[in-house]
Design a protein that fits this description.
Largest sheet: 10 strands, antiparallel
CATH class of the largest domain: Mainly Beta
Radius of gyration: 35 Å
Strand content: 35-45%
Helix content: under 10%
Number of helices: 5
CATH superfamily of the largest domain: Glycosyl hydrolase domain, family 43
Shape: flat
Structural class: mainly beta
Distance between the termini: 57 Å
Number of strands: 78
Oligomer: single chain
CATH architecture of the largest domain: 5 Propeller
């Protein structure tokens, strides 16, 4: 079943060649196969026989994570099965259900949610069920037995009437194993419990199930990974009793993946006795295998024992076990292996003939998952009477809408059944009539879940009056109305070419069929020339939100295409370009990116369906990225070449709006440039993608220079941002200087400091040069147009003759800047001869944007003030500039500068204590207009301004035994026996060590050594060692670092944790991690630096704003992604501040700290 610790993996689908081979050996696709036992996706089966009826209780699979509904399959012959809904549970997860008949005449049902088991009772095996405990309380919480992770509860009744439960998952950890308990008469508490260690039940992972034969107790269980081919069944035996002692069984594993992979990952078994025979019921992965192992199917095979009672190795079959009771349906299926045609089919893996082969492992699937109807037509071979049509749709727990028609000649059709407004689900879906016909046409018109394929396992046709009276029963679901929608095509069409460079894009008009606009939230992105293309530039803090809502055609498993041009200067782990969902688990997300994350760099769906680039696109180049999904396969194209492909199913939970440049929850932002973006609610064909990529228009700008991006000082070289690339380098000994020139940031030339491009231009016949020049005490906009007729020059929009400017020259393909005294603010070289109207447009834009960046002179909003003796904080006044694209440059009197930064807040690091500094700042807009300097303000870093509490951990101490009295610390959480924690100082470091501990709101808590603090502060520490650092090998889910926490009683399970953490988490390559835990919502972001994390951690509180930082050297700090964050709930209350460690799992791990320091103002 789906576990809380998901592995990331990639499963390869069976090829058409493989299916052809299967056809030759007549195995998985042989008509009439008895395995799978039931049609559809179900897992973790428990088989029971009560009276004359077989019952299969199973996880409802194929919906992203075992999300129900609760259901049971019943049969009297073990071949013909009918599904029935049950009233309980109605929770998000429905995992591994089990039912047993109690000694009191009642039936008891147990099922799992992550690491918890729940129970209920009923008078019948199918409910209605009444919970055993009130208020949704679990009967077995996690680690109810130490060393046993709670899951997969299965019951066993011994011959003496005693009832036992076995449970456990992830029993592979040291000192772990399978739990067993003797149930009391109340059927939810235990008379005694024990652990069967994994040293005996070797490789125990999950799914324990016990049965008894000839006095021997057999404990079967699953090992390996449930999502891949390693999943298998093993067993241990006891000749004493249900609680052991046990010994490892012979012939293990007794059930495993077969040689051709068509029986793949068999496991999570149960056993039923029929007479003297025993049959194992288990699940296996579907064929072809779906990625992630989320589409499992139930199978059965007979157990064979040797003379000593050992289980022989099983040979799993596709044929199954056949009838185990009197056949309920003795009349033939008139549609079996008849000729079939279809409106379409996806490929040979899903051909129409599979709908009439009585094989629950094969199905017909139409060519696409659009809203258009799909149909199959069955030729019965002649005009014959029939009265029953039973249809087994792909998903038994979602309804399908359809019609059934019959015909004598294949031309004239009569209605047999009209279920076009059906809202009932079930399997089989049975329709009755009384006709004579040769042809049957089933047209599927709609599905309950968006984007489902209108697929069918089997169609069965009977002429049997007994059946017509109701032997096969259709299941009934809660009525629900379909939200109608149609695919439209190109929903979003955005192109940055409509904007002039330097334009602040507060809104971007959508030319796609959805219409509307994308509106900036906060500071808007800026238009610029990047690599020769016009593009919107995002700097890790900006986003645009649509005014239109996300249509239903992008919900669920619906198809889509996302097409964008993107550029970045360096790779970034998580780099979201577009998002439109609010889901953050179980394949519900649609976050499309341009990142290097090895799991979800291209698309984040949350789970095994995440999608990555196979080879990250090269930085500092434009790349055309297309991600397309057709409901079965997601494909990634980069520059017209297929980069990756994966098979999957999605369950997209749409948000209200589309977001460009960020995830929906704003936990991550895009850094880079976007030239265009298109979204379709249909998959583009491979040939279409290749054609689009081949028709890409080349960049028109060969040279682009913008002085507003430069910092003050000498300019040794200037990077060309046109598509010609290269650097402008100094041609003489002198270098030009970047400085303010008449209110603009510009490159100033003295006449002996020219810059020459180190790359030659290829076309120097038809081109144009536009540049901004300061000369003779004024700024001018110069355009020189070159063609075969010569050169024309325009100054401030007016044609001048003859050309007079020589500031930019091209000689034999070499371009030179600064031949004369003056200053240049920008240069653009177009690859064509500009026309008069283009020149006018450019000149008008230049004039419009020649103005001071702000109306008033620059003034500090927050004057420079020391927050520690080595850090000074200051903030520039913005004067309502939230929607402007301003930058700020803070300068210390002695010359050290921040350079141009995007935010008005600035912290100067590496300052000396007990010294006075003076700071001023300037403001620059996106066109390079610069304000006058602010006044210089002084600030002192005197140590007398601060309270500094530190611990260098020089005095040895065992905090668990000795407490914290007499130290700088005020309290310690997580020192109880259940935690098995160690907190001690030795060799000048503080060690925190534990296993099975948490700081995610669940008990037991990990160790947390803290101080009580009120008001603003800065706290920092060095992490000197963590488990696995020396070997660079992850040791569990070790999470260590600084924590800020609102005081809460650790025994209070009703109040949510309120805390912030700056930590190191090496697992999953996270590195440094920031956790923001508020009101049950746990937001986490990380740096994806793995073992290359920053070992110094810092948190600063300023009112209700918290800055989370890390550092390599403890001198210069950088904000974590998501920092700063605002927490009004933590602003004016006493806080616990200190050092924590936890493992989120059973593997013991540790952290060593050094150099703790807490600084507050006096």
């Amino acid at each position: 079943m789906r576990k809380i610790f998901l592995r990331i993996f990639f499963l390869v689908c069976l090829s058409l060649t493989a299916l052809a081979a299967l056809a030759q050996t007549q195995s998985a696709i042989t008509p009439g196969n008895g395995n799978p036992l039931i049609p559809g996706y179900f897992a973790d089966p428990t088989v029971r026989k009560f009276g004359d009826t077989f019952y299969i209780y199973a996880t409802t699979d194929g919906n992203g994570g075992g999300h129900g509904p609760s259901q049971v399959w019943t049969s009297k012959d073990f071949v013909n099965w009918t599904m029935k809904d049950m009233n309980w549970p109605t929770t998000n997860y429905y995992w591994a259900p089990d039912v047993i008949n109690g000694n009191d005449g009642k039936y008891y049902m147990y099922y799992c949610q992550p690491v918890e088991i729940y129970g209920a009772s009923s008078a019948t095996p199918v409910g209605p069920w009444t919970p055993l405990l009130p208020d949704g309380k679990a009967m077995i919480p996690n680690y109810f037995i130490p060393g046993v992770i709670t899951l997969d509860g299965q019951t066993f009744k011994d011959d003496d009437g005693k009832i036992y439960m076995f449970w456990g998952t992830w029993g592979i950890y040291p000192d772990h194993g399978c739990g067993v308990g003797l149930l009391n008469a109340d059927m939810h508490s235990f008379a005694k419990t024990a652990k069967i260690p994994n040293t005996i039940a070797k490789d125990f992972f999950e799914a324990p199930f016990m049965f008894k034969r000839k006095g021997i107790y057999y404990l079967t269980y699953s090992s390996g990974a449930c999502e891949d081919s390693t999943y298998r069944v093993q067993y241990a035996i006891s000749r004493t009793g249900a609680m052991g002692p046990f010994e490892f069984g012979k012939n293990n594993p007794v059930l495993s993946t077969n040689s051709d992979g068509t029986i793949h990952g068999p496991g999570h078994e149960s056993v039923v006795q029929v007479g003297d025979d025993f049959y194992m019921v288990y699940h296996r992965h579907n064929n072809p295998h779906s990625t992630g192992g989320y589409h499992r199917q139930v199978c059965a095979d007979k157990l064979v024992f040797d003379k000593d009672g050992n289980i022989e190795k099983m040979v799993p079959t596709h044929t199954g076990v056949g009838l185990l009771g009197k056949n309920e349906i003795i009349t033939p299926n008139l549609a079996y292996q008849k000729k079939v045609s279809a409106s379409s089919y996806y490929n040979e893996n899903y051909r129409p003939s599979f709908a009439v082969d009585d094989n629950n492992g094969t199905l017909w699937k139409p060519a696409d998952n659009s809203t258009q109807p799909a149909s199959i037509t069955i030729d019965l071979g002649g005009v014959i009477p029939f009265n029953t049509v039973a249809t087994q749709f792909e998903y038994a727990t979602w309804y399908y809408q359809y019609t059934i028609e019959t015909s004598v000649n294949g031309t004239d059709w009569q209605a047999f059944a009209n279920q076009s407004t059906n809202t009932h689900h079930g399997s089989p879906m049975v329709d009755y009539g009384d006709v004579k016909a040769r042809f049957i046409r089933i047209t599927v018109t709609g599905t309950e879940y968006p984007g489902l394929y209108k697929a069918i396992w089997n169609v069965k046709v009977y002429n049997n009056k007994k059946l017509a009276s109701g032997t096969i029963k259709a299941n009934v679901s809660t009525d629900a109305s379909i939200q109608p929608y149609q695919q439209k095509g190109l929903l979003i069409d955005l192109d940055a070419s409509q904007f002039q460079p330097g334009t602040v894009v507060s809104e971007w008009t959508n030319k796609g069929l959805l219409g509307g606009k994308f509106i900036a939230g906060g500071k808007p992105p800026l238009t610029d020339i990047i690599g020769g293309k016009k593009a919107l530039v995002f700097n890790d803090a900006q986003s645009l939100q649509s005014t239109v809502t996300v249509p239903a055609s992008l919900y669920g498993n619906n198809s889509y295409t996302v097409d964008f041009w993107a550029y970045n200067t360096k790779t970034k782990d998580e780099n979201p370009v577009l998002s439109w969902t609010r889901g953050e688990s179980d394949h519900t997300g649609a976050n499309f990116g341009y990142g290097s994350n090895r799991v979800f760099g291209a698309a984040q769906h949350f789970g095994a369906s995440d999608f990555q680039y196979k080879g990250i696109p090269e930085p500092k180049k434009w790349h055309h990225v297309i991600i397309t999904f057709d409901g079965i396969f997601e494909k990634l194209y980069v520059d017209g070449v297929l980069n990756n492909i994966e098979n999957k199913m999605l369950f997209l939970r749409a948000a209200d709006k589309f977001i460009i440049g960020a995830k929906t929850n704003r936990s991550a932002f895009f850094t880079g440039a976007i030239a265009s973006l298109k979204v379709y609610d249909r998959p583009l064909a491979d040939t279409t993608i290749q054609r689009i990529s081949s028709q890409t228009q080349q960049a028109d700008i060969a040279v682009y220079l913008n002085a507003s991006k430069l910092n003050y000082g000498s300019l040794g070289n200037w990077a060309n941002e046109g598509d010609a690339g290269g650097l402008f380098k100094t041609a003489n000994e002198k270098t030009p200087v970047v400085k303010d020139v008449a209110g603009r940031l510009a490159v100033s030339f003295s006449g002996k400091d020219a810059l020459v491009l180190d790359t030659k231009l290829t076309d120097t016949v038809n081109y144009s040069i536009a540049y901004t020049l300061y000369k003779t005490n004024k700024w001018q906009y110069i355009v020189s147009v070159f063609d075969v007729q010569g050169v024309k020059e325009y100054v401030n929009g007016a044609l001048v003759s003859p050309p007079i400017q020589q500031a930019v020259k091209i000689t034999d393909g070499t371009i030179t800047l600064g031949n004369n005294i003056g200053a240049i603010a920008g240069v653009t070289l177009y690859k064509h001869s500009l026309q008069v109207d283009e020149i006018k447009q450019l000149n008008d834009a230049w004039l419009q944007n020649l103005h001071p960046p702000v109306a008033a002179s620059a003034q500090f909003k927050v004057k420079p003030n020391a927050v520690t003796p080595s850090m000074v904080y200051m903030e520039a006044g913005t004067d309502g500039a939230e929607k402007a694209s301003l930058q700020y440059c803070f300068t210390e009197k002695e010359g050290k500068s921040s350079g141009w930064i995007d935010e008005p807040q600035y912290i100067a690091y590496q300052l000396s204590a007990d010294k006075t500094y003076s700071y001023s700042f300037k403001i620059k807009d996106n066109f390079g207009n610069v304000s006058t300097s602010s006044a210089q303000l002084k600030v002192s870093t005197a140590t007398t301004l601060f309270h500094i509490i530190s611990d260098d951990f020089s005095k040895n101490r065992n905090f668990v035994q000795q407490g914290q009295a007499g130290t700088v610390w005020n309290g310690l959480i997580g020192k109880g026996n259940q935690q098995q924690a160690k907190v001690f100082i030795d060799s000048s470091s503080l060690t925190l060590q534990s296993k099975g501990t948490n700081w995610d709101g669940g008990a037991p808590y990990g160790p947390f050594l803290y101080q009580n603090v009120t008001g603003d502060f800065v706290v920092q520490v060095e992490v000197t060692d963590v488990s696995g650092l020396k070997e660079k090998k992850v040791k569990g889910n070790n999470d260590v670092g600084l924590m800020i926490r609102k005081e809460k009683d650790t025994t209070d399970t009703n109040t949510a944790e309120q805390l912030l953490q700056s930590s190191i988490f090496p697992a999953w390559n996270c590195g440094n991690m920031f956790t923001n835990f508020k009101d049950g919502q746990r937001m986490q972001v990380n740096t994806q630096t793995g073992w290359n994390y920053n070992r110094f951690l810092q948190i600063q509180k300023s009112g209700d704003v918290f800055y989370i930082r890390s550092s390599k050297d403890g001198l210069t700090w950088e904000d974590m992604p998501g920092s700063p964050t605002t927490r009004p709930d933590l602003a004016n209350i006493p806080l616990q501040i200190g050092l924590f460690q936890c493992t989120y799992g059973p593997q013991e791990s540790y952290v060593k700290f050094g150099g703790y320091k807490l600084i507050t103002k006096k």
